[in-house]
Specification:
about 300 residues; alpha/beta; Arc Repressor Mutant, subunit A; D-Maltodextrin-Binding Protein, domain 2; 3 domains; eight-stranded mixed beta sheet; two-stranded antiparallel ribbon; about 25% strand; elongated; transcription regulation; LysR-like_Sec_metab; WH_DNA-bd_sf; DNA-binding
Length: about 300
């Protein structure tokens, strides 16, 4: 009963009108008024100012509203947690991920998610940001995870992880003795970059622009792995996500270098088509990836 009264109170506060609140909750105006009257008697304070055409919260009402929102949110969370306990989450999620995320970030996320929700079937498509963007728009992908910023009226876009981009050189390169570089160190270097439409390509171009560099020669390759092998072979240098070079740095085949003047960072984004139905399995994945525990693990790249 308390939860229901709080819901009525919050609805009146947000609609600023008893009649519209009644329409929202399928209650008559007298019924709404009676519930508010009971609450005002309980708190021994006037909660609404009805002196003008709109219904406004009093100072006491503002306090109750703040706590009521929290109580209702906690009640919903309790219901979800109990439901998770007694009802198995099932369904299928089709993921799309741009290459760095798909190769290095998403597998460990999906492994942890599967342990928590073993009955959910997972499918993953990997491509560049432009491809994942298109597939999310046309509905062939439920959840996209991309490295470049995207915009569309039908897309809900939210950042979920900050990524650091570093310059990579082979271990025997003249710059490998350094940890920090300045633009002058990079002039006359051949840069190996991803194809147009790649989020990594866009981030690398932004980094070059920030450093005031226009490469004299660019080699374009279609995958992160191909670029790493080309750099190891001495064909050039490249910008790459820290996520993608953990193995090579451990084996000392590649050396990461940072811009002396500033870190080069970008955001990873979750994208969803909000005009299409989102299954409970999808909602659980979003809750999972944005949870404090998972976010802490991602930031530490554990």
């Amino acid at each position: 009963m308390l939860e229901y009264q709080l819901l009525i109170f919050v609805t009146v506060a947000e609609k600023k009108n008893f009649s519209r609140a009644g329409e929202e909750l399928n209650l008559t105006q007298p019924a709404i008024s009676q519930h508010i009257h009971c609450m005002e008697e309980h708190y021994r304070a006037k909660l609404f100012d009805r002196s003008n055409r709109k219904v406004e919260l009093t100072q006491a009402g503002q306090i109750v509203y703040s706590y009521a929102k929290q109580i209702l949110a906690l009640h919903q969370k309790a219901e979800r947690d109990v439901t998770d306990l007694v009802e198995l989450v099932t369904g299928k999620i089709v993921f799309g991920a741009s290459m760095t995320i798909g190769d290095y970030v998403l597998p460990r996320l999906l492994g942890a998610f599967t342990k928590k929700f073993p009955a959910v079937e997972l499918t993953m498509t990997i491509g560049n940001t432009a491809l994942i963007y298109e597939h999310t728009l046309n509905g062939s992908i439920d959840i996209g995870l991309v490295e470049g910023p995207v915009e569309h009226d039908h897309l809900q876009v939210e950042p979920f992880l900050e990524d650091e981009m570093v310059l990579i050189v082979p271990a025997n390169h003249a710059l490998a003795e350094k940890n920090l570089v300045v633009p002058e160190d990079l002039r006359n270097q051949t840069f190996i970059l991803r194809e147009e439409g790649s989020g990594t390509r866009l981030a690398a171009e932004n980094a070059l622009r920030t450093m005031g560099l226009i490469p004299e020669r660019i080699i374009q390759l279609g995958s992160t792995q191909a670029i790493k092998q080309a750099v190891e072979a001495g064909l050039g240098i490249s910008f790459m996500s820290c996520w993608a070079i953990h193995k090579e740095v451990t084996l000392s085949t590649l050396k990461p270098l940072r811009n002396k003047d500033a870190l080069v960072t970008r955001e990873f984004y979750i994208i969803r088509n909000h005009t299409r139905f989102q299954s409970r399995a999808c909602e659980e994945f979003i809750r999972f990836i944005m949870s404090e525990k998972v976010q802490t693990c991602l930031r530490s790249r554990v």
